[in-house]
Amino acid sequence: MPRLAPKAVELDNEEKQELEKILARHSTSQQVAKRAKIVLLASLGKNHRDIARELDISRKMARLWRERWLELKQKDVTVKERLLNPVQFENWSFVQK
Length: 97
Description:
By secondary structure, the protein is an all-alpha fold. Helix content is 66%, strand content 0%. The protein has six helices and no strands. It has helices at 13-24, 30-43, 48-55, 59-73, 79-82, 86-96. The longest helix is centred in the C-terminal third of the chain and has 15 residues, at 59-73. It starts with 12 loop residues before the first helix and ends with a helix.
């Protein structure tokens, strides 16, 4: 049975720069930094297994954040908001209103 390739993550220059800024900040939490790295590696065409090995995470986590990024990108959500977990995102959205 053939394996399905993961969905492609395409970043525009603005998104890529924002992710790199998030990674460069010392105040960025480790969780958010890891999510940013997952998205950046996915944008380079790496599959879930390669990302998981490079970042020492599970393939499930690599897949989860790739899919979450793509899902929220369609909803026109900011880069920072896309890296928050669902509970943080709901709280963030509430604060922003």
